[in-house]
From TrEMBL:
The keyword Transferase applies. It comes from the Bacteria. Its EC number is 2.3.2.2. One of its GO terms (molecular function) is leukotriene C4 gamma-glutamyl transferase activity. InterPro entries: GGT-like_enzyme (IPR052896), GGT_lsub (IPR043138), GGT_ssub_C (IPR043137), Ntn_hydrolases_N (IPR029055). This is Gamma-glutamyltransferase. The keyword Transferase applies. SUPFAM superfamilies: N-terminal nucleophile aminohydrolases (Ntn hydrolases). Coiled coil: none annotated. Pfam families: G_glu_transpept.
Amino acid sequence: MDFNLHHFPYPGRRVPVIAERGIVASSHPLASQAGMQILQSGGNAVDAAIATAAALTVLEPTSNGLGGDGFALIWAGDTLYGINGSGAAPAGLSAEALAAAGYQEMPMYGWWPVTVPGVVRLWGNMHARFGRLPLAQILAPAIGYAEEGAPVPPMVAYFWARGVAAAHTRRGPEFEGFLPTFSIDGRAPRPGERFVSPGHARTLRLIARHGTDVFYQGEIAEAIDRFARATGGLLRATDLVSHRSEWVKPISIHYRGYTVHEIPPNGQGIAALMALGILDHVDLNRWPRESAASFHWQIEAMKLAFADAFAYVADPAKVAVPVKEMLNRERLAARRQLIGERAQTYGPAALPQGGTVYFATADRDGMMVSMIQSTYMGFGSGVVVPEYGIALHNRGCGFVLDPDHPNRVAPGKRPFHTIIPGFLSKNGLPIGPFGVMGAHMQPQGHVQVIVNTLDYGLHPQAALDAPRWRWERDGTLRLELETPRHVIEGLTARGHQVVVESELGGFGRGQVIWRLASGSYVAGTEPRCDGLAIGW
């Protein structure tokens, strides 16, 4: 890759990690070490990814858990594989049922937005196809953290406190399992305080002993069904037993001589590809990276991409999603012509006829994994299965109730999904995994990392360190405090509704691993969280 490992444009930030035998990069130091422990025990990158994933459900429950979804891109041999681990709406969830209950839009919390959790099945499918070590060995670090406890780092403690505060405001039997599971005497653990999760350990031990099927048709599935029936939930054992992950062909677009890969819909990765496809018709390099002009063109391209993604992305198993047409190069070139010197509002183009954790692993044999999992909106729905440590996600709030929209809620249908892993290659050879978590920040983060890397030659750590922007659907453009004053003023002059944002966590948290021509790896980790990239 063409970047300068001696280039450090952001004083005080971390340097990249370079290693030969393997790298693990995640948002939690102990989770990264869990993955590295598996690599050093003879496991491959998939084994390490599952170990990291399982550890993160224990160590960072503010962002992910056993009751969430996940996706992965896996480079193995000479092929990039994709796997969609998102779950569908229960058989009892429909627009008609929601209307009868008085809802005019999808609720965010409680049982209504709970869809089938897919992440545990995802682990099992990845392990069955590519794993090397026994699943019990892979899950051992996570089980140890759950049983013996682990100190809580500062950023996780911050978001944990917000989740516990919200839990105190909720009423109903479905919410009663939250505080006993995720608090210490009704409060969040403080930074550096040890947190033990016996229910989580119990569930992980069952999975280690019986395999991931136990979550979907064994003791755990029965416990989820029983709790749902007792507290007014729609999720049933029949919904769980019918769930399957889906191996998918990644979608991609060419950008600056490289190929950027994403998971196809029902995820929003296509939005990142469309934005890059638009920007491939723009010479960004004529402006400095930290200039109002460069930011403006990236933001406007992202807005155009979102206009299409929000209109057309849905579950391709239930409706036709026009992926090929959305990524058509001539169409994207025409979209680029809509961008002018001022901020604009865009609608979707007519088509031609015809809370989350991201982590990455790489091993000495060249296998690489780009993986993401989430319970959404922090702790998810607020519904926790007692004695099992399972916080159920609220991915169903990604549905809409509009009868004419392809993403309308329906039984057995997967919602529009925000979590997306990314991967970069060139001329059929792998460069490596990358990702940035954070709801609709994710495709925006993907675009910024790729632009920082391929247009401005930043190494992985510098690409993650750089000040970010985030466009909101209400038209607000949020900029980080570190954004230079001339960029803020220049964007305001172009008509953007600029807000300088001080809120922690609002600009995503990413990890990057690139493979060098020498065969070694270079990695960066997110400075906006407690993350760690560790090499061997």
